[in-house]
Design goal:
Elements: E1 12-14, E2 17-23, E3 41-44, H1 55-58, E4 63-71, E5 80-85, E6 91-96, E7 99-105, E8 111-114, E9 124-132, E10 143-147, E11 153-157, E12 171-176, E13 181-191, E14 194-203, E15 207-213, E16 219-224, E17 227-232, E18 246-254, E19 257-266, E20 271-274, E21 277-280, E22 283-284, E23 287-291, H2 305-318, E24 322-324, H3 332-341, E25 344-348, H4 356-363, H5 378-395, E26 401-408, H6 417-431, E27 437-441, E28 459-462, H7 474-492, E29 496-500, H8 519-534, E30 539-544, H9 575-584
Parallel strand pairs: 23-24, 23-30, 24-25, 25-26, 26-27, 27-28, 28-29, 29-30
Antiparallel strand pairs: 1-12, 2-3, 2-4, 4-9, 5-8, 5-12, 6-7, 6-9, 10-11, 13-14, 14-17, 15-16, 15-18, 18-19, 20-21, 21-22
Family: Belongs to the glycosyl hydrolase 2 family.
Pfam families: Glyco_hydro_2, Glyco_hydro_2_C, Glyco_hydro_2_N
Enzyme class: hydrolase
Length: 596
């Protein structure tokens, strides 16, 4: 799926701003058929939960309504008119005046509505969006909806971050010619000092011609045909920390005239797993960085350009070279920014919570099998498959994306896990055979009982020894962690990395002892983990959980959210941020202790 951008044949107009807003119980019958009768306005992009002081809105389960007036530019006569949503959490129905024009399920991938012939250029229409925040066994991520004694729906879910909802990413209206370029796929290899580029263009009737343009504006290669390849001599590689991007200018031509044009940026780089090494451009790469969240005060999961810039600045200040999009695909602009600035990305699906053992551990509810027709079965996997298709279609051309993570902390130790995941691994490799695959393993899964690790290329491990287990006893935690990680490396002989390790920390709390929640304990906890990592030859990376504190649902084990960030929610550093800066600065993708 192509990103929305202005070209010589395409125009874009933003629909971001303030929209009329109401929860379903206050919106009346068939609210898409008339002007929404409400005094409230909601910002787009933003989650709606924290915008208002009314607890009924914040805690609402079900449908909310957004509405605004839209005018199609009069200059778009004879063009296609397309409405694009970056995301709607978690499902949407879109109406142009009284007409349903699009439906989509999945809160973190884009979707479109073709309005050609529905609304004419120069005309105005009423745009209404029904936003449904409910999670079920047939959504990714999953959840459960029940009805309380007061008759209201209640939502429960298995992930440890707040279920923000709304129109969290930009809404745009764009035009294309009637015959247009539908999609572009670019893959790259390296041959000595040259770059080898394969491309495929899905387009309407007409001839296709392409040219590659470097950052100085010089044409470095040309080709014809909807599918082909070309060679870039003396290529500038896209490297971690040193991004270089080319433009692939694609033109759809008829009778010598350009019918449609689109420019797709790409970087020439290779990614490979060889033995127990993770290689970028044939060189061993060591991940340093974070699990993150799209989470800011007031906006919730709403995309914010200022936070985008500042967060990347803070990551680079720490010496981080990478991050994981925990636990869902981030806004497209985040990956565009990573492409331009040489930050490596592990791109993760929204499949978090496929583990009923976690629920039992936190609530005392008796164990249920995670994978079964009554829990997470064929319908869940079908939603997961669709999410994977949409994720790969959106992000396949980003050089910053070096690996797909297809689930976070699934019950990979339970019977049924292999039957659930094997088709998903097969599908992802068919969708993109160029990138390695991983999943993040939960603490219940270890090298002796995990049933799916052999299907993947990299072993991504989440561990909290010294926090949830052996709390305050870092000596015992260090011994057990080393045994655990060595077990994975010895059994599977694959690269091992830590995708989560961290300790909740209250900023300003200090202690001379190993006191959990203190800033000193967080730094000591990380240092203990790092000593273990440095002793394991197969180890290829460390992603601290978390970059910044973030909002969670209510729970007695969470006070004002998850406090495992090395930065506060408003991006102030804790002591651990300085400790990471000392460890990571100057590594440039090399493993600590191997800098010569």
């Amino acid at each position: 799926m192509l990103s929305v951008t202005t070209t010589s044949t395409r125009d874009v107009t933003s629909l971001d701003g303030l929209w009329r807003f109401a929860i379903d119980s206050r919106a009346g019958d068939e609210p898409w058929t008339a002007r929404l009768d409400t005094p409230l306005e909601a910002a787009v992009p933003a989650s709606y939960n924290d915008l208002f002081t009314d607890p009924e809105i914040r805690d609402h389960v079900g449908i909310t309504w957004y509405q605004r007036q839209v005018r199609i530019p009069r200059g778009w006569v004879g063009q296609r008119t397309v409405l694009r949503f970056g995301s709607v959490t978690h499902a949407a129905k879109v109406y142009a005046d009284d007409r349903l024009v699009a439906e989509h399920t999945g809160g973190y991938t884009p979707f479109e509505a073709d309005l050609t012939g529905v609304v004419e250029p120069g005309a105005e229409f009423r745009l209404t969006v029904a936003v449904d925040n409910r999670l079920t066994a047939e959504t990714i991520p999953p959840g459960t909806v029940s009805v309380g004694q007061d008759g209201r729906e209640k939502q429960s879910y298995l992930h440890d971050f707040y279920n923000y909802a709304g129109i969290a990413r930009s809404v745009r209206l764009y035009s294309t010619p009637p015959r247009f370029i539908e999609d572009i796929t670019v893959t790259t290899e390296v041959d000595g000092s040259a770059g080898l580029v394969d491309y495929r263009v899905d387009a309407g009737e007409g001839a296709v011609r392409v040219r590659a343009v470097d950052e100085s504006g010089a044409v470095v290669a040309e080709a014809e045909g909807a599918q082909g390849s070309f060679r870039i001599e003396d290529v500038e590689l896209w490297r971690p920390g040193a991004a270089y991007l080319y433009d692939l200018v694609v033109e759809l031509v008829d009778g010598g005239e350009v019918v449609d044009a689109y420019t797709q940026q790409f970087g020439v780089r290779t990614v490979e797993v060889r033995g127990a090494q993770f290689l970028i451009n044939g060189e061993p790469f060591y991940f340093t960085g974070f699990g993150k969240h799209e989470d800011t005060v007031v906006r919730g999961k709403g995309h914010d350009q200022a936070h985008l810039v500042h967060d990347f600045q803070l990551m680079q200040w720490c010496g981080a070279n990478s991050f994981r999009t925990a636990h869902y695909p981030y806004d497209e602009e985040v990956l565009d920014f990573a492409d331009r600035h040489g930050i490596v990305v592990i791109d993760e699906t929204a499949a978090v919570g496929l583990n009923l053992g976690v629920q039992g551990g936190l609530t005392g509810i008796g164990p249920q099998p995670t994978f079964s027709p009554e829990t997470f079965g064929d319908a869940t996997r079908a939603a997961h498959e669709q999410h994977l298709r949409e994720l790969v279609a959106r992000d396949k051309n980003h050089p910053s994306v070096v690996m797909w993570c297809i689930a976070n902390e699934p019950a990979s130790n339970e019977d049924g896990a292999r039957e659930y995941f094997e088709p998903l691994v097969k599908l992802t490799r068919e969708l993109d055979p160029t990138r390695p695959l991983t999943y993040a393993a939960v603490m219940f899964a270890h090298a002796g009982n995990d049933q799916i690790a052999d299907l993947f290329d990299v072993l991504a491990i989440n561990r909290y020894y010294g926090w949830y287990v052996f709390t305050g006893d870092l000596a015992a935690a260090e011994d057990v962690l080393e045994q655990d990680l060595r077990g994975w490396a010895q059994r599977f002989g694959k690269p091992v990395m830590m995708t989560e390790y961290g300790a909740d920390t209250q900023p300003g709390l200090h202690s001379v002892w190993d006191a959990p929640w203190s800033e000193e304990y967080q730094s000591d906890f990380l240092a203990m983990n790092h000593r273990v990592f440095d002793r394991i030859p197969e180890f290829v990376g460390e992603h601290v959980w978390n970059f910044a504190d973030f909002a969670t649902g209510p729970g007695i084990h969470r006070v004002d959210g998850n406090k495992k960030g090395v930065f506060t929610r408003d991006r102030k550093p804790k002591s651990a941020a300085f400790a990471l800066r000392r460890r990571w600065t100057g590594l440039d993708g090399r493993k600590p202790g191997q800098n010569d």
